[in-house]
Amino acid sequence: MSTAEVHRQITADEIAHTFEEEATPKVDLGIYAFEDWIALAIFWVMALAVFLQFFTRYVLNDSYAWTEEIATYCLIGVVFIGASMCVRLSRHIQVDLIYRYLPHLAARTLSTAIDLIRIAFFGYAVKLVWVYIQIIGDESMTTINFPKNYVYYAVLLGFVLMFVRSLQVALQHLRQGYSILERPGAYDGFEG
């Protein structure tokens, strides 16, 4: 018995055909919502500010102090507005192990309670941020003469969007009769 490998000669056409794609995938921008585009725009402003900070510090050896503050405030906007994307897609961290061992009615009740608690939390956070803006919203940024209330309004917008999205998610769970906690496979595409 021979242990030598047998190789077949491959033609240039066969090699060229391996690079052909079967079908060009279609781009669907419809899956993105309002907050996705806002978070993306703020992210790019932040990225440009960080690049400008890097360029002025290490290339020009004379950094602009305001870029760090702008990048920090942009990061705040990206986090809070981006968090509403996670609420919409049910992608926040959650523990669903207990739901596998609970009877259907208990799991459904607990899942609905979680939805209601989330709605109440985001509603209360909206109120708290609004009160906070009323108290100290007129402060100026440290390095540039620009009001901080725009940053606070971005946080408020994030919480308002999270509140609205949590209402939508709760209604979706109510209509379909289960949530991601009860059937994670239905959301990930693993459940047939």
UniProtKB/TrEMBL annotation:
One Pfam family of this chain: DctQ
Subcellular location: Cell inner membrane
InterPro entries assigned: DctQ, TRAP_DctQ
TM segment ranges: 37-58, 70-89, 110-130, 150-171
GO CC entries: plasma membrane
Membrane topology summary: Multi-pass membrane protein
Domain of life: Bacteria
Domain Tripartite ATP-independent periplasmic transporters DctQ component per the UniProt entry, residue ranges: 46-175
One GO molecular-function entry: transmembrane transporter activity
Keywords, comma-separated and alphabetical: Cell inner membrane, Cell membrane, Membrane, Transmembrane, Transmembrane helix, Transport
GO BP, sorted A to Z: C4-dicarboxylate transport
Protein function: Part of the tripartite ATP-independent periplasmic (TRAP) transport system.
Family classification: Belongs to the TRAP transporter small permease family.
Subunit structure: The complex comprises the extracytoplasmic solute receptor protein and the two transmembrane proteins.
Name of the protein in its database record: TRAP transporter small permease protein
Native species: Bradyrhizobium cytisi
Native organism taxonomy: Bacteria, Pseudomonadati, Pseudomonadota, Alphaproteobacteria, Hyphomicrobiales
